[in-house]
Write a structure and sequence with these properties.
Elements: H1 10-16, E1 21-27, H2 38-51, E2 56-63, E3 67-74, H3 80-97, E4 110-114, H4 117-128, H5 130-133, E5 146-148
Helix pairs in contact: 2-3
């Protein structure tokens, strides 16, 4: 039976990509440049490493001054909305400890279901060049606020 408000073929799409890999973008409120620092990066990495205990894999990620791009995948029980809410809470605590005042985050987030290794590679190539396009790094490799926790490339 179709869930209200969901396209009838959506379960078939998710079945094909099991477990699904999501490309997620989370933005700071009013695009404030709060995220590109060692403390937030460390907090993000700790959160992502702990997530593995709950069968959540955080793949490649990049923290830009005012937004985050991350690839994430989880078990059947994984709920993306809940994971993003927890990430915002953890990073929000770090930001408050650094003296920043709410609101810290835009409401919601952007997500896209990654459908193939080509799509994953294309999306990653685009986002890893963000620091260069923004003038924060001469080469994408030089941007210190990026990495990969677990390899989750689609093959």
């Amino acid at each position: 039976m179709k869930a209200p408000g969901r396209p009838p073929r959506l379960p078939l799409v998710f079945q094909k990509y099991d477990p699904p890999v999501y490309f997620v973008t989370i933005c700071c409120a009013k695009r404030r440049p709060l995220l590109a620092n060692d403390e937030v990066h460390s907090s993000f990495r700790e959160f992502a490493l702990r997530a593995q205990q709950s069968d959540v894999a955080v793949g490649r990620y990049i923290l830009m001054p005012d937004h985050i791009h991350v690839f994430v995948s989880g078990s059947a029980e994984f709920r993306l909305e809940q994971w993003v809410r927890m990430l915002k809470t953890v990073l929000g605590k770090t930001l408050c400890d650094l003296g920043h005042k709410p609101p810290l985050w835009q409401r919601g987030f952007f997500d896209h279901l990654v459908r193939s290794s080509e799509s994953y590679a294309e999306k990653w190539e685009y986002v890893r060049e963000n620091p260069v396009r923004g003038g924060w790094a001469g080469r994408s490799e030089d941007w210190p606020y990026q990495g990969e926790i677990v390899v989750i490339d689609r093959v």
